[in-house]
Every structure is written in C-alpha cells, then in structure tokens.
Amino acid sequence: STTEKPILLNNIADAEAFVSGAEVAVIGFFQEPESAEASQFRLAAGRIPEVPFGLSTSPAVLSHYDVSANTVTLFRRVDNDRRDLDMNNRDVDTEKMTRFVRMNELRLVTEYNPVTAVGVMQSSLRFNLLLITDKMSPKHPERMRKFRASAELFKGKILFILIDVSLNSNERVVSYFQLKKSQLPALAIFHTPDDEHDVMTVDEISIERVQDFCNRFIQ
C-alpha cells in the first residue's frame, strides 16, 4: 500500500477509529516522533505490512489509553484484549518489537505455529476450537470461509485456531487428539483450564455443524 506507515494519530477519536478498524492494530506511544525508539518502531512497521501501525505523541491519547511514553501496544478484537511492550528498557529493538507483534497477533482465526502458540496460551479465552486440516487441499479456501464465518458467532467466547497438518511442528497436536491423517479434516474443541476436549471428524465444514458442536460442548 502507498499509505505512510505508521499512521499519525493526533487525537483520541482518530486513535479509537484506528483500533476499531482492524482485527489487530498496533500503536506506538512516544514523546518524540523522531526519537531512536520511534525509528525502531517504524522499522518494525515496515516488516509487518499486513498489520496496521499507528503512532501518537499526543498527551491526551496517551492518557486515554493509560500508557506512558515509549510503549508499544497491540489491540486485538478476538478477545478484546491488549498487550503492552515497554520500550524504556534499553534492549528493546526492532527484532523484539516484531516478535512481540507476531506472538500476540491473535485473529478471528489464528494460524497456529511455534510463534503464535505463545499468544494462544496467554489468551483470556478458555475455549479453543481447532480446525485440523491440510492447507494444500483444494477445498481449503471454502472450509476457511465457513470456519471464519462461524468464528464471528463466537467472538469473545471461543478462540478459533487453524492447525495446518502439512507443518511438521503441528504433528504433536494431531497425535494429542489421537487422530490419523486419514481422518482429517477434524474439529477439536478444548477447554484450557481442565484439558476437557471433544473431537469430531468432518468431511465438510458447515456453519451449522460448527455452531452445534461448540454449543453442545460449552453446555
């Protein structure tokens, strides 16, 4: 995109519109827009093109979000949560900022991998619904469309997660639910506090089936 990253947010209304306009949004709060920390932040913004980055030096905006200068905050819609990274610590650099965003960027449907695993574990949502499938399948785009539409219905209640079985790092997840590749795709729902779970193999994903499976388990 040709828009300047990060976007300057000069007042509370701009900042609120920016946060509510994306599944995941990041704002850097700085005292000086030209500080060393702010330039590291700009580099991080350039590395993650698909996440919107904003920058604010407005005392009113900082006060509104209850942050001090040199803080990077990630806002996410899926569990209505936020994560703060204090940059006053001297060793926070572009690498650490990029990792902080990658770790915490949970979405309506989050793709599970060794980096996002950390954010998934730390989410306040107690229910996780996993779609265990092969992304290479020609049916994948349609499955994802329905899975995503289902996620909208359980926003703030259940974390929807995609497990791609073509990644070797995800083999342990498949074996945990005692599934064979021949049984996939499958849905697995998980209650994190007590490891209670249920598994359903599905030929085709439908919004009704996902809804029914989730509601039954929650009840």
Automatic annotation (TrEMBL):
Stored InterPro entries? Thioredoxin-like_sf
Q: Which reaction does it catalyse?
A: Catalyzes the rearrangement of -S-S- bonds in proteins
Q: Which Pfam families match?
A: Thioredoxin_6
Xref: CDD domains = PDI_b'_family, PDI_b_family
Q: Which UniProt keywords apply?
A: Disulfide bond, Endoplasmic reticulum, Isomerase, Redox-active center, Repeat, Signal
Q: Name one GO molecular function term.
A: protein disulfide isomerase activity
| Highest taxon of the lineage | Eukaryota
One GO term of the biological process aspect: response to endoplasmic reticulum stress
Q: Which top-level enzyme class is recorded in the Swiss-Prot or TrEMBL entry?
A: isomerase
What is any one of the record's Gene Ontology cellular component terms? endoplasmic reticulum lumen
Instruction: Cite the EC number.
Output: 5.3.4.1
Write out the annotated subcellular location: Endoplasmic reticulum lumen
Q: Which PANTHER family does the entry link to?
A: ENDOPLASMIC RETICULUM RESIDENT PROTEIN 27, PROTEIN DISULFIDE ISOMERASE
Family of this protein: Belongs to the protein disulfide isomerase family.
Identify this protein by name: protein disulfide-isomerase
Q: Which organism is it from?
A: Neopipo cinnamomea
